[in-house]
Amino acid sequence: MTRFLFPALVAISAMPALAQDGATGLSYSGEVKLEYVDANSNMLAFRGDAVMSWRSGGLLGFDASLDTIHTDEGDDFTNFWAAAVFTMGSSEVAIGAPRPVLDSLRVNPRFSTSRLVDLQTSFLRGPLTTIASAQDNGMTPGLTYKYNSGDLTFGAGYHHLNDGSGVDLFEGIMRYDGGGTSYFISAEYADTSSSNVTFLQIGALHESDRFDAGVTLGKVRSSGAIHTLRLYGAFDVVPSLTVRGDLLMVEKAEDIYSLSATYTMDSGLFVEGGGTVLNGSDEIYDIGVGFKF
Questions:
Q1: By the 8 A CB rule, do 186 and 157 touch?
Q2: pLDDT tens-place string over residues 226-275
Q3: Which run of H or of E encompasses 227?
Q4: 6, 119 contact by CB (below 8 A)
Q5: Residue 64, Cα to own-chain centre: how many angstroms?
Q6: Which of 76, 118, 135, 271 is most enclosed, with most CB atoms within 10 A?
Q7: DSSP H or E run through 121
Q8: What's the angle, vertex CA 25, arms to CA 20 and CA 29, rounded to 5?
């Protein structure tokens, strides 16, 4: 199996919140996780994703976040996001180095319980801007726009890699949430000096009390086009124990599939693990412990 060369995630500690009502004051959320991966070689990976937002209740606000993966083999994948946010009714404009809207408005859950497997398959699923930003000294300038009207949310963004490559990235997503089901359509476009890359996706995720199910159809175009189909399902055996299955079908390539389970405690601690098959026969097993806040 191709050796994992994953960028990796070092999380920040949670900060005390002044408010958690989502309207005014300071709010935060995030996750840290340490996982062990058994593939052709063994690997430890530390993953973190922390988000902090402040809203004044008026025009001005601020968003900051960090997502990072770091392995014991020295691989590093880190993004820093920070932007001033201007709220105007149902709209928000973020200027600086805002987090991509395909991250903040995403519908699809992660692929499998392994954060490394999720990262590897993201090269077929996106978000493209998040992947590219990790090669851009970790902070990518740009602006994003979000609009919400009831169950309908729209987001768009522009980002520019400031590493001298001159790559411009454009993204957009429309999402509708109703009746326990979220529908979405998204697009990303990277304009480079040599070739252009386009990611297109359309899909839905239904969440009920004990069962979740989702489907996403995707298309990646560069020198040629690759179509993908993702199927996802999860079932709560008991409120604290969830089993899930993932299948990613890739045109003219072997399917990627995973079976995993997560046990979550009231404190926010969780233990999870599973197995994934790549390239028709390469097996990857993962087990990890983490904390959500």
A1: no
A2: 999 999 999 999 999 999 999 999 998 889 999 999 999 999 999 999 99
A3: strand 225-238
A4: yes
A5: 16
A6: 118
A7: helix 115-125
A8: 40
Q: Assign 39 to helix, strand or coil.
A: coil
What is the per-residue pLDDT across 22-54, written as a single tens digit (0 to 9) for each?
A: 468 999 999 999 999 998 889 999 999 999 999
What is the identity of the amino acid at 172?
A: G
DSSP state of 267: T
pTM: 0.84
Which of these, 88, 179, 199, 82, lies nearest to 138 by C-alpha position? 82
- Angle formed at CA 105 by CA 292 and CA 69, multiple of 5 degrees: 45
Give the residues across from 168 on adjacent strands.
160, 191
Note if the bond before 127 is cis, omega within 30 degrees: yes
Please determine, for residue 21, whether its predicted confidence score (pLDDT) is greater than 80.
Answer: no
DSSP 51-84: EEEEE-SSSEEEEEEEEEEEETTS-EEEEEEEEE
Q: What is the DSSP letter of 192?
A: -
How far does Cα 269 stand from its chain's mean position?
20
| Residue 135 pLDDT > 60 | yes
As a whole number of angstroms, the distance between CA 265 and CA 263 comes to: 7
The number of helix segments (H) and strand segments (E) in the chain equals: 3, 16
Collapse the DSSP code of 122 into the 3-class scheme (helix H, G, I; strand E, B; otherwise coil) and give the result: helix
Q: To the nearest 10°, the Cα dihedral for 157, 161, 169, 52? A: -30
Section 130-140 average pLDDT: 79
* 37: enclosing H helix or E strand: strand 25-38
Query: What is the pLDDT averaged over residues 201-208?
Result: 97
Give the per-residue pLDDT at 229.
97
Vertex 52, ends 131 and 145: CA angle to 5°? 60
Q: What value does the mean pLDDT of the chain take?
A: 88
Quickly state the pLDDT bin for 143 (edges 50, 70, 90). Answer: very high
